[in-house]
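Give me structure tokens for this 96-residue protein.
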Amino acid sequence: MRHLHTVTETFQITGVGLAVARYSLDELEAEGIEFGQRFEVKVHTPDGAVWRTQAVVPVQFVDPAPERHVRCYSLFLPTATPEQVPVGSEIFVRLN
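Here you go.
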């Protein structure tokens, strides 16, 4: 599995899941991740716990900051909670 992201902040959206990362379109394409795609990730938490869950990139938005006015995507873990994915957690992915 390849390291995808180190969690620096999270936020929960009811009905969607826990947002753990934001990427530009170019970053996502470089990782081989497509809009709407579901895939498995492995989460390593700072306390040493390791577990697997599903991830999805369900929404697209435009970063409103003038210096970063690019299309962005957020990575969500639909079944995770902020307590399960604390800041400092590492997310790994294996894409086919």
